[in-house]
Amino acid sequence: MRLVRLVTALCTTATLALAGVAPAGAGPGLAGRLVFLDAGHSADGGSTAQVPNGRGGAKDCQTSGTATDGGYPEHTFNWDVTQRVRTELSALGVRTELSRADDSGPAPCIDVRAAAANAAQPDAIVSIHADGGPAGGHGFHVNYSAPPLNAVQGGPAVTLATTMRDSLADAGLTPSTYLGDDGLFARPDLAGLNLAEYPAVLVELGNMRNAEDAAVMTSADGRARYAAAVTSGIVAFLRQSA
């Protein structure tokens, strides 16, 4: 068993190195911490049933998200990257919980996901997405809830967003060229973030409608690079907040 764990850890370190991200390594502030990972959207097309958005309004329960021009769906990209992040965090001793069980059937509504995340009492909540922006724009942005609805959203969530933005940029990824403030974007309309009682961000890793970003997203190596960068951001935040 110890040998299996060692091999897993070495493989994770290799993945981080290939992705251009300095290996986080196990150490103080990681063992036993809990991260709630939300692979955005649903494989079944979603539902237009209205659910609370956290600010007195309502939003669709769930959607299938966007897709590349070649038909690669966002929900599948989100699921793949989330699984990679989970594997890397587990190798570092970080516990994880997921918002959905697979990429083949119905998924919980956004308010149900937020409730599950809060019930887990995690150290961080990270929702993985890809954008469907203008074809001429590319790059990532990290969303956080603003104006804040509680003290966590006004402090730790902004720290998580900034730390994640810095880690993605350090990995060589480009901040969004079409919106956000140097890779950060304050949003009042994202239910999962508005309902969060623990530090939460929603990461749009790139623009699926942009040919350059789409080429990376449809590549296994590209998804590994995204996952390694997200993992690095999570680890950096956990160590800061230890």
Any overview of this molecule?
With about 240 residues, the chain is α/β, with parallel strands linked by helices. The chain has one domain (about 1-240): Zn-dependent exopeptidases (Aminopeptidase, 3-Layer(aba) Sandwich), CATH 3.40.630. It contains eight helices and eight strands; from the N terminus they run αβββαβαββααβαβαα. The strands form two sheets. Strands 4-1-5-8-6-7 form a six-stranded mixed β-sheet, sandwiched between helices. Strands 2-3 form a two-stranded antiparallel sheet. Strand 2 and strand 3 (about 60-65) form a beta hairpin. Keywords: Hydrolase, Signal. Pfam families: Amidase_3.
How would you sum up this structure in a few lines?
It contains 8 helices and 8 strands; from the N terminus they run αβββαβαββααβαβαα. It has helices at residues 2-18, 74-91, 110-120, 151-154, 156-170, 191-194, 211-217, 220-240, and strands at residues 34-39, 46-52, 58-63, 95-98, 124-131, 141-145, 184-187, 200-207. Helix 2 crosses helix 8 and helix 5 crosses helix 8.
CATH class: Alpha Beta
Low-confidence stretches: 1-24
Question: What is the CATH architecture annotation?
Answer: 3-Layer(aba) Sandwich
CATH superfamily: Zn-dependent exopeptidases
CATH topology name, in short, is Aminopeptidase
What best-fitting shape do the alpha-carbon axes yield?
Answer: globular
- Average pLDDT value? 90
Percent strand equals 15-25%
User: Widest sheet: strand order?
Assistant: 4-1-5-8-6-7
- Give the biggest sheet: 6 strands, mixed
Integer count of domains:
1
Rg, Å, rounded: 17 Å
Pfam family, one: Amidase_3
Keywords: Hydrolase, Signal
GO molecular function: N-acetylmuramoyl-L-alanine amidase activity
Domain MurNAc-LAA: 114-235
